[in-house]
Amino acid sequence: MLTELNVLLLGLSGVLLGMACVKADRVRAWRAGINPSAAELPDSAFTVARTLLVVMAGLGVYTAVQGFGVSDDSQWSDDELTSAVQGATASLDGSFTYGDPLEDASADFDGDAYATTLEDEIVEHGGKDAPGFGVDAALSATTGSDGASFLVTADGASESHCVVVRRAHSGNVETVAPGLSGDAARVVQPKYTFAVSNRAGTC
User: Fold this and answer.
1) pTM attached to this predicted model
2) C-alpha 36: how far from its chain's center?
């Protein structure tokens, strides 16, 4: 929408410049044809009018250029999204987390929670020219205990990416609960390691 408004503003600026280039004799002839009894316009009136039209056209062009910059800053390009997805994939691949001590190691993978993690990681790897928002990682299939696939899209980008996440139970970690002693303080948490890959296109 913003891009269309900027284009429209450039078009209006072009019209204003065209009006500024119309010769005085042509304007006088046009006025005489409509109202023959109208007073003659002095040359100074045309000078003022041309100056105003050129200034307005210049302001329109400046505003449109600034608008294009704002529009670009709020949209993802295909290259920006591709680079960000690749960076996020490399960062998340091999990462790990600890589960709830009370949960079964075979508990279903929480795809909704990981979608947020994936979105945040992609935004973080977007670079200084990419927007800090507008990324969506949607679950593309039913999740299970071992992972899920996410369809990644972004505002402005025409391409999409499929990020595949596999979660493996890679052992348990034993810790001690604060304030307790002996066997009561022993806490065992499952450790999960993630294998993350991506490919261009839909899942």
Assistant:
1) 0.62
2) 58
